[in-house]
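Example 3.2
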Amino acid sequence: MTQMLVLRPEPGAEATAIRAAALGFSLVVAPILTVTGQEWTPPAEPPDALMLTSANAVRYAGPELARYRTLPVYAVGQATADIARAAGFIDIRIGPSDAAGYRRVIKFCALQRVAAMNKRKLKEKALRSGGVMGVPQGFRNEPYE
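Structure, written as tokens:
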């Protein structure tokens, strides 16, 4: 039996472990990060849409995210879309599996993306040319204790 090491943070680690066990893998779950929410300030100018490149944006961005429920949401995968729908978002589109792919798809709207703090600088630079308004730090990845 092949042994698999699962390093992703919870709740994703457990979900991955369940899927992998169903495929016959022996598992060691050892998350290396913990996801936590943090306060953030939405931009003064309202965006045209919301980009969700992680389900953790919905889980941890706090009550400020609710102001965007009426906007179109671009989610990078079905799991992120499902969590957004459960949080009250209605107009959800599932597309490319990464933010850079969305930059190529969405060219004509002011897009608000809520990201993890430690990814902000790299992704904001990569996306700025594609109409992304900014990347507020709605959640943070920290070392697992």
